[in-house]
Amino acid sequence: MLVTNKESTHDFTQIIKFLKRRKGLLEAVVFSGGEPLTQKYLLSSIQQVKKLGFKIGLHTAGSLPTRFKKVLPFVDWVGFDVKDLPENTDAITQVKGSGENNWQSLQLLIDIGVEFQCRTTVHWQLIDTKRLIKLTQRLADLGISDYVIQFSRTEKMLDPDLGYSVLAVEQIRQLKSDLIEIMPSIDFS
After folding, report:
1. C-alpha–C-alpha distance, residues 18 and 116, integer Å
2. How many domains does the chain have?
3. Cβ pair 164, 153 in contact under 8 A
4. Residue 49, Cβ density class (10 Å: 0-12 exposed, 13-18 middle, ≥19 buried)
């Protein structure tokens, strides 16, 4: 298996050797992406790292619920990306069925009981304040209390059709107040 990023490509055996040298210095390894569930060898890679004694973190939107269910028993924590309400997610991702898969995986995560944090990145061309309030309410109704709303930083957008994303300070202040009323533990970044 090869692990890649913008700067380099590494054979996974090199990463395992590195992790063996870092035992006692590192506590956990986080698998992230893009979408790590699309990686054919994710489960075996997680199992190898887990056998070394590391805790496992996973950043995902749960795009493949069947694979997600298989890796969950080996994961200690999940950073779970919730794009929007299930009925609106396909329009954001441009992937048919992504909303259904996202929410199916969220339910798996809740049912299995792995520690997790839900996150939504907000771009005001993709979601409005009313839907964000409705999304927060739906998550609260599911019992979720660890939820972070990340406001999109639009300086370097990859999609040229998405422009500057901003609301007036007073609108943001009111929105935060409304959301905290629904979920007092909500965080913003």
Report:
1. 27
2. 1
3. no
4. buried
Could you tell me the residue range of the domain that residue 184 belongs to? 2-188
DSSP class per residue in 155-169: TT-SSTT-------H
CATH of the domain at 53: 3.20.20.70
Pairing verdict, β 2-4 and 147-151: unpaired
Residue type, position 46, single letter:
I
DSSP state of 23: B
pTM over 0.85: yes
Residue 2's H or E segment, with its range, is strand 2-4
Smallest CA-to-CA distance from 98 within 69, 134, 60 is with: 60
Give 110-127 pLDDT, tens digit per residue.
999 999 999 999 988 888
Reported as a single tens digit per residue, the pLDDT across 21-48 is 999 899 999 999 889 999 999 999 999 9
Q: Which of 113, 126, 31, 40 is nearest to 82 (CA)?
A: 126
